[in-house]
Amino acid sequence: MANTSRVSKHPIGDTLNIIVMLLLCAIMLYPFWQTVVASFMSESEYLTSRFKMIVIAPTLASYKQIFQDGTIFIHLRVTFLITVIGTAVALFMTAYSAYGLSKPFKGSKIVMFLIVMTMFMNAGLIPDYMNYKELGLINHFAVYIIPYMINTFYLIIMRSTFMEFPKELEEAARIDGCNDFRIFFTIVLPLSKPILAAIGLFFMVSFWNTYMQSVFFITDKELKTVQEYLQKMISSTQELESIMQVESGEEGFSSETIRLANIVLVLLPIITVYPFLQKFFVNGIMMGSLKG
Fold first, then answer.
1. Lower CB count within 10 Å: N or C terminus of the chain?
2. What topology does the record note for this protein and the membrane (predicted)?
C-alpha cells in the first residue's frame, strides 16, 4: 500500500515557523496571564513576585472586596443590556437592510453609493452631540443603541452574501405564496447562520467595549458603562479608594490587585462567549467576501 502522507520539503523552515509562532503567542498571552494570576495574589506576594507567572498562595481577597462594594455590577448591568439589546437590534437591522439592498431596483447604485459614503464622512463630535440633544438622546440609554443600529461595512458584507443565494429558492417560495418578508425570515436567515454568527460577535464585542458614548453623552452615573468605570479605576484613585474603604473582613489585597481583579471581571464575559462563535469566523466572513 502506497504511503499517501506528504512529507514537508522544508522541515527546518517549518520548525522555525512553529517556534516563531509559539513565541508570538507567548508574548501576546503573557500580559493577560499575568493579569489573571496577579489578581489572585496577596499584597505581599504581589510586591515580591517578579514575573507574576505563578501564584504561590492564591487568595480571593481582592474579588471579595469588589463584590462587597458592588459598584462594578451596576456598570456591568448597563453594559450587558447594551450588548444584548444592541447586538440583537443592530444584527436584525443590518441584515434586513442588506437583504433589501441585495435586490435590483431603480436607483440602487445611487443608494449604495450614498451608503458607502457614510464610511468615509463623519460630521464630528459636536454636530453629533447637537443632533442627539435635539432627538432627546442625551443622558438616555437609547444613545447607546439608536446611532449604531446599522453598520455600513457589515451591511456590505451581508448584502454580498444575500446576492449569492440561489434565485431558485426564492422563486419556489413565491410560487408557494410567500412574500418577501416570509422569504427573509424562513429561508434567508436560517441559511445565513454562519455570517450572522460572525457579524453578531463583532457587534457584541463592539457594544461591550462602549466607552466614548458614555463619556460624552451620559452624565447619569447609573447609566455609565463598565469600560468608563474601568478607565477611572485604573487612572484615578477616587473609585479605587471607595472600594478599599469597604468593610469586607478580608485582608491581603492591595490597590494593584483590586485594579487587576476589576480588569478580569470585565474581560471574563466576552472571553467566555468568544470560543463558541469563533468557528463561524472564516466560513461566515468568506461567504460575504466572494462577491462584491
1. N
2. Multi-pass membrane protein
| Phi, psi (rounded to 5 degrees) for 240 | -65, -40
Question: Coil, helix or strand for 192?
Answer: coil
DSSP secondary structure, 56-70, as one string = SS---HHHHHHHHH-
- Range of lowest pLDDT (75-84, 186-195, 254-263): 186-195
Q: Which fold has domain 69-289?
A: MetI-like fold (1.10.3720)
**Domain range list for the chain:** 11-59, 69-289
pTM of the model: 0.85
Cβ atoms 39, 63 nearer than 8 A: yes
CB 201 within 8 Å of CB 283: no
Residue entry with cell 445611487: 110
Reported as half-sphere exposure (CB side, CA atoms, 13 A), residue 269 has a value of 18
- The stretch 257-267 carries a mean pLDDT of 92
Amino acid identity at 71: T
pLDDT mean over 132-147:
95
